[in-house]
Amino acid sequence: MSVDLLQGYLLISVVIFAIGCAGLLVRRSPLVVLMCIELMWNAANLAFIAFARQWNNLDGHVAAFLVMTVAAAEIAIGLAIIVLLFRKREAVDVDDAHSLSG
Q1: Are the beta carbons of 23 and 39 closer than 8 angstroms?
Q2: pLDDT digit string (tens) for 54-90?
Q3: In the structure, what pLDDT confidence band is assigned to residue 100 with cuts at 50, 70 and 90?
Q4: For residue 101, what pLDDT is reported?
Q5: Which of 83, 60, 61, 64 is nearest to 72 (CA)?
Q6: 27 pLDDT more than 90
Q7: Fold for domain 3-101?
Q8: Is residue 64 within 8 Å of residue 49, measured between CB atoms?
Q9: Domain boundaries, given as residue ranges, for the chain
Q10: Residue 12, C-beta contacts closer than 8 angstroms, at least 6 positions apart
Q11: Which terminus, N or C, of the chain has the lesser number of Cβ atoms within 10 Å?
């Protein structure tokens, strides 16, 4: 893989990560926040795979697989918390998480 192609992949990764960060800071819906976190995870995966391909090494692929595993667990737990919040209150907002304390 040429350096120009690697820079292209990293540029796309940075753009996706920036979109995820902006969405995380701006939006208040828990579902949108989880989707923005997933965008950030996927941007990191793209960078891992690009570097692994550049150096002909499988370590980046393994790291991306582990990141996907952690992201799946995060989404499962996050959705469970969102459902719990929605059952307690009809409107779900990120700031309503303090109501789960009992």
Answers
A1: yes
A2: 999 999 999 999 999 999 998 999 888 888 877 877 7
A3: low
A4: 65
A5: 64
A6: no
A7: Helix Hairpins (1.10.287)
A8: yes
A9: 3-101
A10: 46
A11: C
CA angle 36, 37, 42 (to 5 degrees): 95
Computed on alpha carbons and rounded to an integer, the radius of gyration of the chain in Å comes to: 17
Angstrom distance (rounded) from CA 81 to CA 75 = 10
Residue 13 neighbours by CB distance under 10 Å:
19
DSSP output for 29-59: -HHHHHHHHHHHHHHHHHHHHHHHHHTT-SH
Distance CA 1, CA 32 (A): 35
Amino acid of residue 84: L
Two tokens, residue 102: 């009992």
Which of 83, 85, 80, 88 is closest to 97 using CA atoms? Answer: 85
